[in-house]
Amino acid sequence: MDVNKDSFPDIVFVNSSNDFIACINNGNGQFPDTQIIYSESNGSAYPHLIPGDFDDDGDSDILYWDINTHDILILLRNDGQGQFYADAAQPVNLSAYGMQLVRQVDLDADGSLDLLIKGISTIYWLKNTGNGVFAAPDVLLTGFDNYFGASFADMDSDNDVDIVVTRLKTTDIFWFENLMVVGTHHPRFVNLAIDLAPNPATAESMLTLPFDGLECRIRLYTADGRLVQEHITADAKFRLGRNNSPAGKYVVLITDAANTKLLASGILIWR
Q1: Please, is 205 exposed, middle or buried when counting C-beta atoms within 10 Å of its C-beta (0-12, 13-18, 19+)?
Q2: Helix (H/G/I), strand (E/B), else coil: 96
Q3: For residue 133, with 0-12 CB atoms within 10 Å meaning exposed, 13-18 middle and 19 or more buried, which class applies?
Q4: Which of 33, 114, 236, 247 has its CA 20 to 30 A from that of 122?
């Protein structure tokens, strides 16, 4: 994080005495200036630190909580000169959610950094309601008992944050697309993995879509890119017939009806 707004990234850590130490970058990758920017007298050693401009004033703040209790959030506000002062504690019982991973990201595209928390089986959203005040955790996705990592980024360049998770002890990667309508600030996630059964198939395969009611365009391509089928539907299930297609692998692409946004994709095998 850039403690003093000189455009050089600095280093901040907490020592065993609960002193928040800033090592100031001189611009050459050296850190000759070390200073205590805050001391925590009540918490346990080594609180979890999350940097970011949480109060939207143009400088980097620090959000932290006690790693033993996880029951409060405290925002250290940067005064713009590299001096920090503690805001009022915000009660959030994170331990109840089995916290494993925390990331700061503007999930709802309102210009303020929110918090995303991956618990044991659920991903929660703590919305920044303004000036670094966070709403109660809201469930975004659940059912991740066998999932390990999680990343949050705009995977398809549509100006919203998507979620990618990995399954424990497998090579499976799942992309949950954010279908938030720009300007509404209400994220909505769907699993981009599509369900085809049976697959491989001999005559027909049932395509199950994760977004019932959303009009979609379904295209089936050969491995060399030749379009062989195209359909538009708003149903959650759609039956794909073989239509005399030869045996082999086919690419299934699903977009919105206007063909402006990729919603899902997969492989169908005719045999």
Answers
A1: buried
A2: helix
A3: middle
A4: 236
